[in-house]
Write a structure and sequence with these properties.
Layout: E1 2-5, E2 20-24, E3 27-31, E4 36-37, E5 42-47, E6 50-55, H1 57-63, E7 66-71, E8 77-78, E9 83-89, E10 93-97, E11 102-107, H2 110-113, H3 117-120, E12 129-133, H4 136-142, H5 146-163
Antiparallel strand pairs: 1-2, 2-3, 4-5, 5-6, 6-12, 7-9, 8-11, 9-10, 11-12
């Protein structure tokens, strides 16, 4: 296993800061440093008055090619840990818990016709929803820092590699 960061990108090429990476076996998993994570791999990125959520690179790679996504509708209320979305792949069906409590303010319309966007751009165009958080300070304390989540990825991927 090795740790590294992605090479710098040309100015304006990407809005996500330099990604943290861990390589396990023949796989490389990336973690965006500008958001927090659930242990299961759902990220939360604070925006003005809301929190954008999506799947981590590790979770999308582990799940496989995403064929279908269902996100709670706009206006739905969710509790932290309660299902915000589900994904269907050729390998598994996964229920995704919300990293924060609040009201769904926006969903990603691109996922209706192109759910595989999550696989290709999990930290950018593959986001799931925007939530108006009802108690961000409490939710924030339950989430993992990017470095702590990278350790979860390292441990989980290492365990899976040793079983293979």
């Amino acid at each position: 296993m090795s740790w590294k960061t992605s090479p710098p990108r040309p100015h304006g090429a990407e809005t996500t800061p330099e990604l943290l990476e861990v390589a396990v076996d023949k796989f490389t998993f990336k973690v965006a440093p500008d958001r927090l994570y659930t242990e299961e791999g759902v990220w939360a990125k604070v925006e003005v008055g809301s929190v954008r959520v999506g799947l981590s690179d590790f979770l999308q790679q582990r799940s496989g090619d995403i064929a279908f996504v269902e996100v709670k509708p706009i206006g739905a209320r969710v509790k932290a840990g309660e299902e915000i979305a589900s994904i269907e792949t050729v390998k598994v069906n996964v229920s995704l818990g919300s990293p924060v409590a609040g009201r769904v303010a926006e969903t990603n319309p691109a996922l209706q016709s192109a759910p595989e966007t999550i696989n290709g751009d999990p930290y950018g165009g593959g986001w799931l929803a925007v939530i108006e958080a009802s108690n961000w300070p409490a939710d924030q304390r339950r989430l993992l820092t990017p470095e702590a989540y990278l350790n979860v990825v390292k441990r989980s991927a290492g365990e899976e590699a040793s079983r293979a």
